[in-house]
Amino acid sequence: MMREQLSVQDLQNKCIDLKKKVVDMICKAGSGHPGGSLSVAEFVTACYWHEMDVDPQDPRRADRDRFVLSKGHAAPAQYAALAMKGFFPEELLDTLRKEGSPLQGHPSMTKCPGIDISTGSLGQGLACAVGMALAAKMDGASWRVYCAVGDGESQEGEIWEAANTAHKYGLDNLVVFLDNNNLQIDGTCDEVMPNGDLGAKFRAFGFDVYEIDGNDMAQMVAALDLARAVKNGKPKCIVGHTVKGKGVSFMENAVGWHGVAPSQAECSQALAELDAQYVK
Amino acid sequence: MSEVVKKATRDGFGEAITALGRANRNIVVIDMDLGKSCKTGQFMKELPDQYIDVGIAEQNGAGLAAGLASCGKIPYVVTYAAFSSMRMLEMIRQEICYTGLNVRIIGAHGGFTPAFDGASHQAIEDMGLLRTLPGMTVVMPADYVSAKKLVAASETYEGPLYLRLTRDAIPVLYGEDEEFAIGKAHLIREGNDAAILANGDTVRKALEAADMLAQEGIRARVLDVHTIKPLDTEAVTAALKETGRVVTVEDHNIIGGLGSAVCELAAELGCGRVRRIGVQDRFGESAPYERLLEKNGITAENIAKTVKELTAI
């Protein structure tokens, strides 16, 4: 299996497919986290259809690229990508959060093919991603690690401990995507606990930082390409300024849509809105 | 009486881990600025490419270990027991136990052994806490030899494992040719009048107590229950059934550790009387190690007395 490399337009359309599955599966599950799944969707899409070398026929292949969803509550976005890539049948998406389903509320590596590490309790995934990137360096391997971190999640101290370690060991095979949607459960990040300038913080921790509109596919692809090209012994951080709930008007920038499932009517409206966004 | 040879279990760990690392390049040590104290110095010197120091950042170290293990490495996370259990407890739960990864966590300076450091450094809860995590194995060797052997056995052990060490040199109890298996209690002395089940440095106190009892004609079985999870139910059941009287001894809170594990089994079997000797559900303080044990009744005299009380019932 090689990296798929779709055009930006095809990636945009793939991302809409993915977002539709996110909304639909959360509606069917009756619970889940639509807002943060939608804000990170462009990153997930770009990783699976532009950036990463993964093999649905051999999900544990030793030299695959790794994906760590440190903000594990956005699991529906990764589940949609894995289903669309063929890691498991798309019908399985309808079992999200249901008893016996491999699609747990938060990703489980022992239950779901294509999940490289279990996450859910915030702040921990980045340390795991750093461990993976270190393993690659120790083995002189060329595979890479991609990790999605939430901005609310960045209030956890462990994120910064892991950032320190990534810098110390020169992990330029690690790309952190900071999903900077400025919303968390109890309000805006600025209200709950201001993160300040996250780009400056990661820069101070020794990362190369690329600040982009994290819902703009062209910028996403350019940033990933740059992060891959610059082999200077510094870990990379793409600070994506995103909109929580991006693509569904009534979910956009709305705190209330962090962890609430849409009703059937809301789901239909969301799918219609997303349908209208395909690029022809 | 022949001279007692004393060696620290942490030295046993340091030697064993270096030997493992030499033979297997997937063995990785993750230190947290306590390498000198936890005896990973030789490993660091000889095997720098398999050595990571994350600094004083335990939570990150646990997550990093999970990431390494998910890629086929066998990481040993090394720090003091108080931190390697409690500071990183939730990381162990989510990233190491829930995932079932082959991470080994070393809890150096377990129990009261960092005596003069005071309560902040004395882990008296660690084994009990980790025992409640699904899939976790919890081990405490009694001496230098068994520490070396149990560390060596951990290389190929399937799943997460916590191994607790002591600080100072303690008597070497075992010969170099004795075998130890994780999950299998080690029978040190036969006896059917009572059984003393201990682990760590308290095993030697159990033996002293057995000697005292022998002088009074009471033959006490002594078992080194170095693995409290999975508990060797076969050996413990036999002790409960064949002696009917079991005293547990540990340098750990009487809640949660070996004593609890044995009581759970005894209650479910409906067989045998059990008395627990250990830390009396209170914090330690800066004091000599032996004094701390004494204040909690962890002495050969109290073990012997407790056995006699049980045999009198």
Task: Write a brief structural summary.
The complex is a heterodimer of chains A (280) and B (313). Chain A has 280 residues and is of the alpha/beta class. Chain A has helices at 8-29, 34-39, 41-51, 75-85, 125-138, 157-168, 189-192, 198-204, 217-229, 264-275, and strands at residues 66-69, 145-150, 174-180, 183-184, 187-188, 208-213, 236-241.
Distance between the termini of chain B: 35 Å
Main β-sheet of chain A, in a few words? 5 strands, parallel
Order of helices and strands of chain B: EHEHHEHEHHEHEHEEEEHEEHEHEHH
The percent range for helix content of chain B is 40-55%
CATH domain fold name of the largest domain in chain B: Rossmann fold
CATH class identity of the largest domain in chain B: Alpha Beta
User: What's the story with the biggest beta sheet of chain B?
Assistant: 7 strands, mixed
- Helix fraction of chain A? 40-55%
- How many helix segments of chain B? 13
Strand order of the largest sheet of chain B: 3-2-4-5-7-6-12
Order of helices and strands of chain A: HHHEHHEHEEEHHEHEH
Q: Average pLDDT value of chain B?
A: 97
Secondary structure category of chain B: alpha/beta
Radius of gyration of chain A: 17 Å
